[in-house]
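Re: the multi-chain job from yesterday

Posting the exact lines I submitted so nobody has to dig through the queue logs.
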Amino acid sequence: MFSKACEYGLRAATYIAMQSLDGRRVSLKEIADKIDSPIAFTAKILQLLSKNNIVESVKGAYGGFEISRTQMDKLKLSAIVDAIDGDTIYAGCGLGLKECNADKPCPVHSKFVDIRNDLREMLENTSLYEMTAGLEVGLTFLKR
Amino acid sequence: MFSKACEYGLRAATYIAMQSLDGRRVSLKEIADKIDSPIAFTAKILQLLSKNNIVESVKGAYGGFEISRTQMDKLKLSAIVDAIDGDTIYAGCGLGLKECNADKPCPVHSKFVDIRNDLREMLENTSLYEMTAGLEVGLTFLKR
DNA sequence: TTCTAATAGGATAATTTTGTCCGATTTAAG
DNA sequence: CTTAAATCGGACAAAATTATCCTATTAGAA
Ligand code: FES
Ligand code: FES
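And the result, structure tokens for all chains:
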């Protein structure tokens, strides 16, 4: 569904948000450990999220990553997916035609757009703050 | 969403089904041309579909690929996706945890399963025969 | 029987994605 | 000022996916 990079990005942002709620800035090392991701690869993804103003990065000693309380309310999952995977999910045709195009649709188009729209709506309506809700009380997990 | 291989497989099977409706057995070359796919790669995919009894292959001169009328009614898109991409779509977690597991769900699990189930149902309920309907009358396309 | 056109299948190559390494830079503490 | 801990960023490496090439095999037709 999403690329590995995007999956790591979603998990990382969620973990940062959760810790930011407690006022804790977190390091790359801690993030990679808590979401079970390759550390150097995760660094690249966090750089990208930082450039897209999705997470805030602080360099130097005692630095790390954080997300402000107001940001994690406004920030939807779609922003993260857009930043990492681009619009392939929304624009791509289910059968792999160059782009999805209702004027010259592929045979699954009408059924596929419904599913894709549901996915899009879910991503656009789910905030990072919501993502943290179950995590804190141990109902949901970012690693097993 | 699907791998390139799977997209080619779905398009190829659909084209074969459509031609089989007219009693025409089609060659690899024709298929690749009509669905705009790399010929040798498409050959691999058709081998796989043939081994999984999704298409029938006939070797030698005047050979090619075909799908019987009864088969294209029974055959659902899910069979093709299963054969090529396996169960990653159904079993995979939206955030990339090892497997999707309701007992230790990720933060998007509850929302994600609904979308994934819709996709699964669509694939399981759409027959290859249905796929050919719009194609013959020029309402849908396998290439642009 | 021989020729020809087709799929089968193994080996290999190119590309993309994923992942690692290392030095540069930044920043706070001592 | 020096040191230590952290991100940044470029180069590189590994793995997976996509794509190509070539030979073997098959089977119909002349
Ligand atoms: S054209 Fe294929 S999904 Fe829209
Ligand atoms: S556990 Fe993540 S989608 Fe089910």
